[in-house]
Each structure stands twice: as structure tokens, then as C-alpha cells.
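Complex record, three chains
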Amino acid sequence: MLKMNHLSKVYRTHMIETHALRDFSIHVREGEFVAVTGPSGSGKTTFLNIAGLLEEFSGGEFFIDGVSVSGLGDDARSRLRNEKIGFIFQGFNLIPDLNLFDNVDVPLRYRGFSAADRKRRIEENLARVGLASRMKHFPSELSGGQQQRVAIARALAGSPRLLLADEPTGNLDSLMARGVMELLEEINRQGTTIIMVTHDPELAARAQRNVHVIDGQVTDFDEEPRLRVPENGRDTVATTA
Amino acid sequence: MEFRPILSALMRSKVALVLIGLQIALTLAIVSNALFIINQRIENMGRASGMNEADTFMISSLGFGAGYDVKNAYAEDLATLRGMPGVANAAPILTVPMSQSGWSEGISLTTTQQNSDVGVAMYFIDEQGLDTYGLKLVGGRNFTADEITHRDVRSTSWPNIVMITKALGERLWPGQNAVGKQFYLDQEKPPLTVIGVVDRLIMPWPNISNRSGDKNAYEFSMMVPQMVPFGLQTRYLVRAEPGRVTELVKAVEAKLAQTNTSRIVREARTLTEIRAECYRSDRAMLIILIAVIVALLSITALGIVGMASFWVTQRTKQIGTRRALGATRGNILRYFLTENFVITTIGLALGAVLTYGVNLWLMQAYSAQRLPVLYLVGGMIALWLLGQLAVFGPATRASRVPPAVATRSV
Amino acid sequence: MFSYYLQLGFHSLKRNPVLTLLMVLGIAIGIGASMTSLTVFHVMGSDPIPWKSDKLHYVQMDSWDPNRAYDDDDQSMPPDQVTYRDAVALIEAGKADRQAVMYKVAWPVQPENRDIKPFQSLGRATSGDFFALFDTPFEYGNGWDRAQDKEHARVVVLARETNEKLFGGQNSVGKRVRLNDVEYSVVGVLKEWKPKIKYYDLTNGSFSDPEEFFVPFNTAIELKTPAAGNNNCWKNSAEGWEGYLESECIWLQMWVELENATRTAEYHSFLDNYVAEQKKLGRFPRPVNNRLPDVNQWMKDNRVVSRDVEIQLGLSFAFLVVCLVNTIGLLLAKFMRKTGEIGLRRALGASKPQLFMQHIVESGVIGISGGLIGLLLTWLGLMAVRGLYDYFDSVARLDWPMVLATIGLSIVASILAGLYPTWRACQIAPAAQLKTQ
């Protein structure tokens, strides 16, 4: 589903080069629920941005669903993002001027679905997160947990194969956090691949597999059932040396 | 495009909508009315006088002293002028079109008609007048030399023949040939007979307000075969050979001053100068209005740029989120263009009402005419384009917001 | 505290130079446009003789055509001049405190000095009361008296410039001047006297220069001097100069000075009686319609402030409104961009009124900057107006009240524009902002 080989990301500002990621390799298979952990500044968010095609990378290879991402133009990346990836942010990132229905509608608009199709998907997904009755409400009228549910509904509305979550419970109290986690697990059970960035070990423990990032490198990972994946006639090892 | 979500988003920030909308509405109201006034002034200024303006100038001589003989002055001066090299022709006159001063009379068609409602400008000329003014005779004949008489300013009698303009003939005898027709200037005196009709000769005061409802009223002029001194003042129109008018003004001034020393030669003015003087305030209004329109459109455009930039800055995160959710740069660009189109359209709707409000005020306070809808449509199209142009910069900037903004924690 | 706010205001101006420039220029252009037209409007419409304008009355009587009102646009308006017959009758009756009849004449001036060429000169034939009526300042000598009026004296009052031209500015009282081949003796020389509006003869150009000389009315009549100004007839007159004097042609202006409202009412009824008498003689065929407008009313009636100037004024203030709306938007943008700072200040203990003051002062700073540039633009604008209209030379000029008004207007305007954005800025909650910063 998602494969990164020896990926690096360098930020250059004036005279200083910062290596946000160096020789970063990871392989996430279809249907997995992977938690990416690590301390602040370790490169978790950079990894997520690159994984979600929000940022370019400096070197290495990156495939999504077998498609090489390097060399894709901005529009092609936007389309890929729109079709295959759903996002859940720590700060929810709901558009305050739009009501729930219109918020969930945003990615569907860019996808170009028909009006009826969009309506069906919005209603279905808002129902799935338990907010079907509040479609006409605005984000400011909801609790944090509810807002994050809307964000999840928005992420799922386009039926993405991969869901990227950035500290999805970071702004929530534990009760709400638990609810959101249960929802994510439910979604994963139904077949959506999830990569979740978090610094909360308790949360990470609930994922099928943990990847630990320090200083832009994967330093530790759970045992992987099938280490070698025969693909493109080449063996890829998602480990560090 | 996605009108409804944009509209509902706008309704959440009503103040911004009101501010830009109001600005656009006021701009439309001012611009369309100003354009209308400008066009009317241009139309006014563009009206042909019917005479040769390029090569003519007028000049006056004011005699003094008991021994000064005006009749003599006419004869001598005309002989001098007509004999000068470069002079195509010269004639004694009282006034010229657009000079703002002259003589007017009311015309009656019968001896019993009480209300002479046709005001006519009087041009006093000799047999060379037609040629010197450069008028086009379209019917009848010109005066002959033996028909020209001298007139005292205080005289109350009139010669029995005149020439008139086609517009005046049409007003007095619609659809008929005016040549041979008669009318009265003084109902107690014999009538005057029209012997010739010229195509066009406008009044000395072409900006006269048009009360009679006849849009050609400023063309109601009549030519009388007389020389009229004003006290000891005589006035001449000189037509130069093409291109020589400037040199001739000086030469004629010097020559007239030299031929007779007991007079003051003055008011040498070319018709070009007289026209400029006549339409000076129209021209001033025109320039002021154009300056206001330009300044107004610039301010409005800058205002849109400023507000749009602000919105882009404020919504950076939102734009990033949209990008993260799969919006292309084109989608973002179009979002802002569409948003501007929606705001502009709302402003223009209000502006249309305001435009006719201003027009109504101008109609009541200044007897202006009703604004043709064309000006409103023109103003609307201009403002739509202006809005799209102004918002293009900020919208482009918005489209460059990187999607990674979405994950940066606040 | 105020100086701290001022300092903050200037600092804030420097922080977003482009936005600041947009706002300041917006205000400046709006102020420049509106003050340019307001100055023209203000000077044109201002009272030219404020200390006695309410005592000076123009005399109007409806001696016009029974079939047609004099003014098609305003049928209730009597003619703007009077006939010779009526003027003479009113002067002879002498019912007002002061009275002057007048008309414009054009005569050649023939200097004794042969080096100066004869030149055409515009003068005014009027009554001796003219000078006291309009408070004309004298450099040398005086005007002439009513006796000299009666005896058609050959006397003249010269304007300062004419005296400069003919006598090099010397005291010329008693010297002789030759006008149109007739000798006059100088009795007075005026000081510089140039009313911005030539209010005493609005019929012949509101902005023309004042006359170069003044001679007794009866003298000009005796010399059969035709009016160089407007002349209107509705009826044909008899032959010759005598016939003209007896005619219904109007070509004279008539002013009277009346001390108070009672005297004005008395004079009005005197006029009504006069017209009633004349009706018996078969004159004045229209309904009795006498008017005695004072200086300001007469200026209004004659539209000294032209329609174009009024439209320009309306337009420029609408323009100012657009500029203000624009500024409100930009200020809002500016203040909203500072939400973090405002939240922080609130957290550090600034009260709402304090924040309100700070931002109002900041708006005022923009106003002052815009006002100063606007003043420069007004000055340029007036220069342009003088170039566009040649006869606006005297009216399109800045005076101190207008300079102060310009700065004042821009400060008031910008503070008005700042009110809403400031109010919005003060609504920012301290905690909410800090959390997200």
C-alpha cells in the first residue's frame, strides 16, 4: 500500500541544512494499522506530510499503491491525495465557515462526484460517526470529539484506501480520545489501511504494529510477519541496517 | 462551480461582504452616472458649427473721437482685408457661433400669434458672409451686394429678405421648402421673406437649455443682409487660405491698427480658440469625471486586493486543509475567483438600485435625462472584470499555499 | 498613555508598509478629491460682504411679457434687470437708505501720455451711492455725491490698477482722464478691490474682474452709451436713443440698502404701490411680482455655484465614502491580523477601553498621515481646477480654515472608519488567543 525506500528530506534555510528524514524506509501493507511514534522533532510529521503527498522529498523512492510518486506534478499529487488518502489532523482543520454537511462535501467536490452521490456519501459517513442529526450545525457548535468525528467522516467520505492520522486524539480528553480510537479501529477492521502518528505509547499499543522514529530514522519496529515482499522483481527490506 | 458553499461561507463573514459589496455598489453608481454625463458632454462638444472653423478668426475695431465714421471704416477695412495676401475672404459680422454673445429675436408666423416661442440667433452679414463663414447653401440664393444696408443698433425696422438654417425652416414649415416663405419679427411691420437656406449654422450659445423640446433648437439661426456697428465698434470675420490662420491674425491686427490710428484693434480670436473657450467647462467636467472614475476604480481594485490578501492570510490553514483533501491549485484559484464573482454580483445588484437612485436625484435636481440601461450594463461588466483582475494576485498566492500547512499544529 | 498609543500607532504603520500605504493613500485621495471640490464650493458660495450682506437688496420687478414668463425654467422669477424708466423712478423716489442703479460700459481710454497706446476699458456707470453701498475702500479722494449725479458731472473714480497704468500710482485726484473723447476729472482712486464673486452684477459674469473705472450713471446716459452687458427686450421699442430709454428693454441693475426688516418691508410695499400705479398706465401686464433678495439669496438665485460644481461636490463625497469603506475593510484586516498581539495584551492586563483607545489612536495616525498627503493632493487638485476653468482663479484657492478642515475631516473620517474594526479587535478574548498562538 505504502512503500518508502531510503527516503530523505532536507530543509535548507540560509546556511543550515536540517535533515528531517535520512535513509527512511518503511513498508505498510494493505489493511494494516500502523502507529508511528517518536519524540517531538523526530520527523514524525515530516514523514506524515510526505506520506500524504503534502510535501516533496529530497531523495529515495516512494510508492503508493505501486505507483511511484516522484516526478508527479502538483495536480497529479492532488488527485492521488483526493482519491486514495484520507486525512485526520490533530487540530481537526474543519472549515469554520461551512456546516458539517459542507465540510464533509469538500473533498467530494474536488473528486467530481455527482450531487446525488455526494449527498449519499456525506449522509452515510456522518451517520457512521454518529452525527447524522447535526448536518446543518457549524463546527464551533460541536465538542472537540465531535469535531474530530466530523473530520473522520470527511476523511472517509471519498472511500480512501489509506487513512493518515496525525495525533488524532491530541486535542481531546481521554474519554473522547477513546471514542475516536474505537472508531478508527472499526474503520480499520472494515479494510482501510491506517497510519497514525502519535507520541502516546498507550495509543500506539492499540495498533497492530509500531514504528519508532528518532532523528529522522526508523530505529525500532515490531516484528513484521512477512519481511520480504516480492514486488517489481526486487526485494525490499523495511529495516535499518 | 461551487456557488452555494461559497455563498454560505460568505454569509458567515457578513461584514467583509457588506464592505466590499457596498464599495462596489457605490463605485457602480458613480461610474455609470459619470460615464453618462461624460458621453453627453462629448456629444455636445462634438457638434459641428456648420462653418469653417479651421481657417477663420474674428477681429474687432473700436473707434473713438467725434470724427470717426463707422460706414467709412467698414468700406476701408473690408477693402484692406480682402486685398491682403493669404486672406481667402472677409466679411462684416456681429458675432460667430459659440462666442456666447450676440442678438436673438422671437419669430411669429402670423400677425395675430401672441406667443413667439421660436428664439432665433441673428447673424448680420454682407454678400460675402456666406463664403467667409464657409456655409453650405442648400436652397434659394445668397444676398447680392446691392441688397446690403447699414443698420443702426437702435433701429426698429427690418430688411424684407433673410436667409435661415435648414433646422429653423423645418421647425417653422415642417416638410416644406422654406424658400419664399414669410414670417414676422415685428407684427406691426411687414413680414420678412426667406430667400436662401443654409445647411447648418449653430447659435452663439449652443449650450442653451433645450426647453422647447426641439433638439435642434441650437441650430435656429437667421442671416440678415445688414452691417451693424455697436457704437463705434465694427467686427469682421476673416477666412485665411488653408494653414495660414495663425500668421494672418498678427498681420491683420497690425494692418488694421496702421490704417486708422483713432481706434483700438482688439479681440482677435480664432474660431478654434472660441470653440475651446465655449466648451471649456464641459471639457473641465469631462476631465474631472474621468479622473474621478480612474481614481475610484483604482481605490476599489486596491480595496479588493487588500481584502482578498487578508482573507488568504486568514484562511491559510483552511486552504492547506483543502489542498490536503485533494484540491488542485486550479481549484483554489477558482474558489477565490468565484468568491469574488459572487461578492461583486451582490454588490452590483445593490449598485444597480443605487445607480438609478443617483440618476433620479440628478434628474430632479439638475433636469438630467434618464440613464440608458447600456451604461449600467457597461459599468457592471467593467466592475466584474476589475474584481476578477484584482483578486487574481491574492488568489494565485492562495493557490501556492503548500498543503503541508494543514498538519502544522496551529 | 496617549503618547504610548501614538508610538504604537506609528510602529504599527511601519509593520505592514503595503497595507498602511493602501490605507493612507485611500484616505488621502478621498480627502484630496472632496476637499478640492469643497474648497471651490465653499469659496464660490461664501458671503462676499458678510458684514452687511443682509442689508443689501437687489431690486426685481416683473415688467415682462404678459404671454410669457421671463425665466422659462422658473416661471415665478421676475426679470433679473430693470428698465431705464423704472430705475430712474426708483432713484428719484429715494425711498431706500442708499440706492444705486448701474450698468456695464466699454470705453476707450486715451491717455495724455502719447507713449501709452489708447486701450479698451470696461467700466461701470452708476450712482454716487455705489461706493458707500458696497463699502469700496478708497486710496485717494472719494466717490461723487448725489448732486453730481443729478448734474451729469464729468467725474471718474479709477480702480487701483487703472491709476497705476495712467498715473504711476500717484495721487491723481483732480487730474484729467480722457474716455471715449470726453474729459473727466478724477475724484477718487480705489484701493485693491476684488470681491471673489462679482456679486453686484451677476447678470454679466459672476467671476469677471471688477471695473477699471466708475462714472456717474446720468453722464453715461447723456452720452448715449450703450450697455456693454446683457440687454433684453420683449416689445419693440421706438426709434433712436430716446425710444430705447422709454422702452420695456431691461438692461440695468438696481441695488438698495435697507437697515432692517421693517425698512425692507416698507420698501417692498413701496415697490408694490409703484407697480400698481404703473399698471394704471398700461405697463406691467403680468401679476405683481416684486422681489428684494439680499446678497446671498441673489447669489443662490443666479446659481453662482454652478450645477457642475454641485455635482462634483456630491460626486467627490460619494468618492470619499468609497475610500472610507475601503479603509474600514483594510483596518479590519490589519487589526484582525493582530489578534495574537491583542490577546496577549489582554492577558497582560490591558483593559478593553485601553485597547480601544490604542486602536482609535492608530486609526487617527492613519488619518493624520492621509490628511497631510490629502492636503498636498487638494493643493494639486485646486491647481488643476484653475487650469481647467480659467475664471476660477479667485475661488480655487486654499485658505487656513480649509487647511484645518482638511486635516480635521481626514482624522474624523479615519476614526469613524476605525470604530468598527476597533470594536471587533476589543472583542478578542485573552485566553482563546493565547491557546492557539
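Note: Chain B touches chain A at residues 2, 5, 8-10, 12-13, 317-318, 320-331, 402-404, 406-410 (CB under 8 Å).
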